[in-house]
Structure formats: structure tokens, C-alpha cells
Hints:
The protein has helices at residues 2-30, 36-43, 47-51, 57-73, 89-98, 102-112, 121-140, 146-169, 176-190, 219-234, 241-248, 252-258, 262-273, 285-291, 295-307, 316-336, 342-365, 372-377; strands spanning 76-78, 84-86. The protein contains 18 helices and two strands. 64% of the residues lie in helices and 2% in strands. Helix 5 runs antiparallel to helix 9 (176-190).
Amino acid sequence: MGMKRGTYRTGRERVERILDAAHELFVDPGYRATSLRAIASASGISHPALLRHFSSKAEILTALVDRLDRQYLESVTDGPDGGFRPRPAAETARRNEATPGWIPLFTTLLGEATSPEHPGRALMRDRRREAIAIGVRTYGALGADERSAKLAVQRLVAAWEGLQILSLYFPGRIDIPARIAAHEDDVRINGIAPAPPARPGASTAAHAPAADPAPERTPRERALYSACVLYARHGYSGTSMQAVADDAGLTKAALVHLAPTKAALLDLVLAYLATPAPDWNGPGGRLRAALDRPRWQAAAEIVLMCEAIAPSHPAHRSMAELLEEGLSGVEEALRATGGASDAEAEAAAQWIVALVLGAVIASLYEPEDVEPAALVESALPPRAPACAPAALAR
């Protein structure tokens, strides 16, 4: 009996070491770029020993998220009378921050799993659906109709996910629990706004398949388009120069002539995604430009942004600069109205940028159930869309 307990304890300790190592590697260099052998090596065990516990990376990913997610599941408890009693969202946000590595792993997977081919997509999608279902029950208890409650919860989840991205690019600057608490206070004071009338057949560009929008393109344009599509599917780490050349119908030599290295190609893609759209001007133009791009563009940017949260990633600095530009632009516009203090403008800018980011992510996970413009436009004051973050309006 003692030997069996010892064997069990040793096995559990080994599993925990595997999950700890996978956690670090899935954040940097990322899930796609991490092999089972790399996890085994970081765990201090052999590859065959790891396979006795997990047969695939997908199994490790599921076990890891389950381990980290227990804290979230504990945030919903039954009341003393057996009724539904959720904890405040701000409290859950504080608990998430207190769990080492939870936000980096969640954010990395959030971006990677927007790809339909990612083995963690169903897990991340179902987790988001569960959170929304819990929120709808909570808001329903406050008297909101189901449609209004669902839109309000989708908006909260979108802003929350966006705030987590911002917090990883700007450590110590984004107080997620404070932003969530302020939102909850607003809901308690002002109630839940009724959802706007449904628009039958409404769709967004994110619903569209990743079709080539311009058949007659130069080799450079073909290379950039193919790189975006492949980054959206496999991330930067999982995309080779040869794969881009093949998808673009180019020889490897022709691609190298355009971009001599993988990092040089990434720089071209980042510049391409940041190119201003011709319809930026006008009320709400920048906001709509951020939300109405085709899926291949939106997905490429989101995957790269979430993948690049690690400072060692070659896109980290560029993404940080783009997000900083967005935050600064919104803050400046809000202060220019004369109705917001510096602190208020900073908090509002963080919420707006986060909301736009989260709305795009939501549309990539639930293209038939989410209309990004409804999530954003119904939540912002009339002047806000006109000053939406330039960094997000491509």
C-alpha cells in the first residue's frame, strides 16, 4: 500500500512538473512552437516518460487550462438557499491576477485558438460560452431581458479580454479589477441598457471566408496576403518562409528577394496591417475600419498581437507601439472634449481600446452570434467612435 501511494504521489508530482513546464513554454515561444520533447526536457524527464502521462500537446493543454480554470469555476457558487450566487466580476479579475501565469497563458491561447485548426479552439470557445451563460443569468437576475443581458455580457467579456492584452504590453499600468469594478458600479447605478433592434441578416466582414480579395496582384502583395492567412492559421512561429512561398505561388528565391529573412517578412506584414484605410475620415470611420476588415486581416493581427505578448517575440515592440498610439489617441480626443479629467480620459481610453480588441476577438470565435459594431457602438458615447484607436483601424 505504501509503495502504491508513493508511486501515485511521484506520478502526480511528475504531472505537475510537466504542466508547469508546458505553461511557461506555451506562453513563450507559444503553443504551436513548442514540441513534446521540449516540454519533457524542461520538465527534467525523458520523452517516453512524458508520453506515459500525456499522448499529445492537446491533452497537456486541456489539463493545464483545467488546472488554472478551477479558480474561475470557483467564482460561481451556490448561495445558502441553493440559489445562484455569482461572485463580482472584479473579484474574479483579482483572483486571476493573483494566479501566476494565468493571464499570459490565457491571452496567448485566446489569440492562437481563433484559428479553426487550433486544437484548443473548442476548449477556449466553450469556456467563453460558459462565462457568457453565467453572466446572462446574473444580469437576468437584475431584470434585464435575455437579449439585452447577452449583449451586455458579451461587451463585458470583450472589454475584459482586451484589458488583459493591454496589461501584458503595459505591466503595472492597466488595473483590470478597477476597470471591471467601475463597470459593475455603472451597471448597478444605471441598469442594463436595452439591446438595439435586431438587424435581420446583419453580418460583418469577419464572417466572410478568407478569400483572396484581389486576384491580380503583384508578387509582393501575394506574399503579404499569404503570410497574413498563414499567420492567422498557424501563428508566426508556426509559419515557414517555404509555406508562404508555396501559398503565394512563388519560388522560395522570389520570396527571399522580397524579404530576405522570416523576421523581415514579419516587418512587412506589420507595416501592411498598419496601412491606413481610405475611409478613415468621417464619424466613426476609424472604429468601423477596425471592425469591418475581412477575417484574414483581423485574425492575422489578433493572432500576432496575442502571440507577441512575450517581450522576446520579434513583433512585441511593434504591437506595443501600435497599442500605445491607440491609447494616446483616444485619451487626447477625450481630453479635447473638455469633459474628462486626465484620469478619466486614461480609464476611458483603456476601456475603449480593450473593447475594440475584444469585439474583434469575439467575432472570430462566434462569427454568427456576434456583431462587433453592436458591441462597441452601443457602449460608447456619440463622440467616441470618431476617435477610435488609430492603431486598431487598419
